[in-house]
User: Which sequence fits this backbone?
């Protein structure tokens, strides 16, 4: 009855996922500079739960952690590589898998120069597709700060529905903030995916 | 709220704190509670809305009691037994499902034997446990998740000043199927309205 075996298999060596303009792939230590370029940008991290990277060491430490998780078949952090520049411009990940392996929650970040072009929508649609079709997930959820319009537009364009709010639900830069809860169910995904918005 | 408060679980729950309301005593779960616990734990009408499966034998009740006693011994957070003072009987349990000290948030859960439903007893319990959450655990947010068909529990939460935050579709597995969960939460800043009768 549990789906955890399927999840584990689908995350083994974390397969790469190509999209039209992007390649979602495993992160490497030599991505540190690209990662630091946006993870140190306070405008990128302002609404995110993780702290702004202050030095490249923070980026290296994050990468080491992610790379170690791949070896344990427990890691689901994809680097988002831009086909045009060949650089890592963001990450997208399954942070936790719960509910007997049927429920995943997804999070992402994108470098500021790449905002507003539908790139994150492309990445999220691909990860939802991977989660439902290959990982056997039943429900995929995502949360973001209620003021982060850019982020929840991405969720909406991918067909995720706004289910509720989490008042004072998470710490962001030392303050408790309200988050929106979005989710997509497997049976809806084919119908609502890639709605133009 | 904008400051992290350092609260240690073992300082709050060790030794395990007993609470008292007008009609009820909240005390440690004891081995003598196995029979009345099994009586309602095996009642499908009681267990259909909780996060655990209906008890099949008294061993299921004993296993819960042993696990809970181990928590008392280790100064961990653990459930309270609800004892009806006048009748002198064990009628249910209440506790926090999780406590994230980093965000000063916790989720409350409770269950009560059917003969005691409909008398406002659980409302009395939840109010007292909320008070404990605000004053002793220094919580900022207390949340609860309840199945849509569980009208009685929703009424308890509303009487205690919880606000409805949304409906999470098919978010949990219960007895082999996916069920929706309604999200409710009470905030510390709303204490004034929680004490209304």
Assistant:
């Amino acid at each position: 009855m549990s789906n955890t075996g399927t999840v584990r298999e689908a995350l083994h060596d974390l397969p790469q996922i190509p999209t039209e303009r992007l390649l979602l792939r495993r992160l490497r230590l030599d991505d540190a500079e690209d990662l630091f370029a946006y993870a140190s940008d306070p405008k990128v991290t302002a609404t995110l739960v993780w702290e702004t990277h202050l030095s490249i060491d923070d980026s290296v430490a994050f990468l080491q952690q992610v790379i170690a998780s791949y070896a344990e078949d427990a890691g689901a952090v994809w680097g988002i590589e831009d086909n045009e520049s060949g650089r890592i411009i963001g990450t997208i990940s399954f942070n936790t898998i719960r509910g007997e392996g049927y429920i995943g929650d997804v999070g992402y970040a994108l470098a500021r120069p790449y905002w507003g072009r539908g790139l994150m929508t492309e990445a999220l649609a691909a990860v939802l597709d991977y989660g439902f079709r290959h990982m056997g997930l039943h429900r995929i959820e995502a949360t973001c700060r209620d003021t982060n319009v850019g982020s929840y537009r991405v969720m909406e364009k991918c067909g995720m529905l706004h289910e509720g709010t989490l008042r004072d639900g998470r710490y962001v830069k030392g303050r408790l903030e309200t988050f929106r809860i979005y989710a997509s169910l497997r049976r809806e995904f084919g119908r609502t995916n890639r709605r133009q918005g | 709220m904008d400051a992290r408060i350092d609260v240690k679980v073992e300082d709050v729950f060790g030794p395990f704190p007993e609470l008292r309301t007008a009609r009820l005593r909240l005390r440690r779960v004891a081995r003598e509670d196995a029979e009345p616990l099994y009586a309602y734990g095996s009642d499908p009408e009681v267990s259909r809305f909780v996060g655990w499966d209906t008890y099949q034998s008294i061993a299921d009740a004993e296993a819960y009691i042993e696990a809970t006693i181990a928590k008392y011994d280790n100064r961990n957070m653990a459930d309270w037994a609800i004892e009806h003072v006048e009748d002198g009987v064990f009628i249910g349990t209440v506790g926090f499902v999780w406590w994230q000290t980093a965000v000063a948030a916790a989720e409350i859960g409770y269950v009560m034997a059917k003969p005691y439903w409909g008398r406002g007893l659980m409302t009395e319990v939840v109010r007292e446990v909320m008070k404990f959450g605000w004053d002793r655990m220094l919580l900022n947010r207390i949340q609860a998740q309840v199945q849509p068909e569980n009208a009685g529990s929703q009424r308890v939460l509303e009487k205690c000043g919880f606000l409805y935050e949304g409906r999470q579709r098919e978010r949990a597995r219960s007895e082999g199927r996916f069920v929706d969960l309604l999200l409710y939460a009470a905030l510390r800043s709303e204490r004034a309205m929680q004490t209304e009768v």
In short: Helices of chain A lie at 4-11, 32-39, 42-45, 56-71, 119-133, 149-157, 186-192.
